[in-house]
Specification:
single chain, about 230 residues, alpha/beta, Rossmann fold, six-stranded mixed beta sheet, globular, binds adenosine-5'-triphosphate, nucleotide-binding
């Protein structure tokens, strides 16, 4: 198996506080990797560092073996590293169809129709983003990350604020699409049903460091993970 995304010694501090403290992470090609841990563990910080959104961090990042440490967010996106956001990253007054078209053109992508169909956004293309439901906005956010068929997809709580049923539906759509495309995924999610239903492997962060890493069953049974995070969800 080849490694699609690798971070070495990733650290980021806010003032004197180390939000991310020397994290190594290596995600194999085609794998769906969960990133879990308590509030404030450093998960979003790690996604920000890997995607190129963060400033003032240290360490090294490799995409398909090529170093991208110094590339800006847009350049990483063009190399095939996409992300979604914890809060939706959409333009409220622009139609859903227009947002997807603009994103797709910017990436020179012809696979937009497949994304629209998979996420069932066809009936909503003429609607302003602000006027559709929150669940629809989350699907638009995910679609914007999927446009261009990224090789690696970083997802920051794609199911946040959705009902259990909506979350599992979204997780199923996502799993089917990325399996079909062979996309590598790193997903932050607090909904453990989503994590355990789609992830091949899970990394657990706590206090800015890696607490554990392994298959879903291994992580679920790890006493340190249960104590720091999972509790009764294990
Ligand atoms: N811009 C910032 N300025 C100061 N501290 C920050 C900033 N961003 C994050 N932090 C702190 O860094 C730590 C890690 O935050 P991060 O958002 O990465 O955690 P998280 O694991 O994603 O948490 P959550 O599950 O609540 O989203 C937290 O203690 C947070 O308060």
């Amino acid at each position: 198996m080849t490694v699609a995304l690798e971070g070495r010694g990733l650290s980021r501090a806010f003032g004197g506080f180390r939000a991310l403290d020397g994290v190594d992470i290596s995600v194999e090609s085609g794998q769906i990797r969960g990133l879990i841990g308590p509030n404030g563990a450093g998960k979003s910080t790690l996604i920000d560092v890997l995607s190129g959104r963060a400033q003032n961090w240290s360490g090294q990042i490799f995409l398909d073996g090529e170093e991208i440490t110094h590339l800006k967010i847009q350049d990483r996106r063009h190399r095939g590293l996409a992300r979604s956001f914890q809060r939706t990253n959409i333009f409220p007054t622009v139609s859903i169809g227009m947002q997807l078209t603009v994103a797709s053109r910017a990436l020179g992508d012809s696979g937009l129709a497949e994304v629209v169909e998979a996420l069932n956004l066809g009936p909503l293309l003429d609607h302003q983003a602000a006027k559709v439901s929150y669940g629809d906005q989350r699907r638009l956010d995910l679609a914007l990350a999927l446009v261009g068929r990224p090789r690696v997809l970083l997802l920051d709580e794609p199911a946040a604020g959705l009902t259990v049923e909506e979350s599992l539906t979204l997780a199923g759509i996502l799993r089917d699409l990325v399996r079909r495309w062979g996309t590598t995924v790193l997903i932050v999610e607090h909904d453990m049903e989503v994590i355990f239903s789609i992830c091949d492997r899970i990394t657990v962060l706590n206090l800015g460091k890696t607490l554990a890493e392994g298959g879903p069953d291994q992580v679920r049974r790890d006493p340190a993970v249960v104590s720091a995070y999972l509790g009764s969800q294990a």
